[in-house]
Structures are given as C-alpha cells and as structure tokens.
Amino acid sequence: MRSVRQCSRSACTNAAVATLTYVYADSTAVLGPLAHLAEPHSYDLCAEHAERLTAPRGWEVVRLMPEFEDAGPSPDDLSALADAVREAGKARRPAEPPTVTETARRGHLRVLRADDPPSA
Known about the structure:
Residues 87-120 are annotated as: Disordered. This protein is of the alpha+beta class.
C-alpha cells in the first residue's frame, strides 16, 4: 500500500509527495518523486513545499518532475485494503478444548480454567 509519510517541514501535516536530496559535492539539490523508503539524509516534502523550494545561493535545483501532486489512494490500494479486511473477518479463533472453561472476562482479556481431565 502507498506510504502515508508527512512533509518534513516543521508544523506541516500534509502528505509527502516528493523527496529532496542534497548533493553537497556538486552544490545541487535534487527534488524527485517520493522515495519508496524514508532515507535518513533526505527530506520528504508536500506538494506546496516542493513547488516553493529554493536552493541556497550558488546551488542548483534539479527537478525530476515538473509538478508534484498527491495522487491519493489508487484502486489497487483500495482493493488491497478491502481484501485485508475481508481476510481478517474470516479468521476465526480456534475453539477452546472441552476441558477449558472461561471463568471471568475484563475487556478483551479472559480468565480460563483448565478442568481436571477425568481419571482413567
């Protein structure tokens, strides 16, 4: 499923759509599509901050895409989510053996007691 990473800019809660990487040796800032994985030395930016990006004086900005827009969930993402929900609904907890009884319940926790098996 598509990542829901946020923009790296302070106080921005928008979804990230681009990744900014600095190439210090070339004095270049490279702005490209959102990387598949978050890297420690790169910055994720929302569409607004990606469009307004400027580089320090003497640096060059390389934009690998002319526009960055959040595409939102794709039909594949929505189908995968629906399939996961269906599978989770199908999963059934195995029944307790007949020698185990529930004696108390608090929220999602249960207290079980194992009955002594019949002596042969």
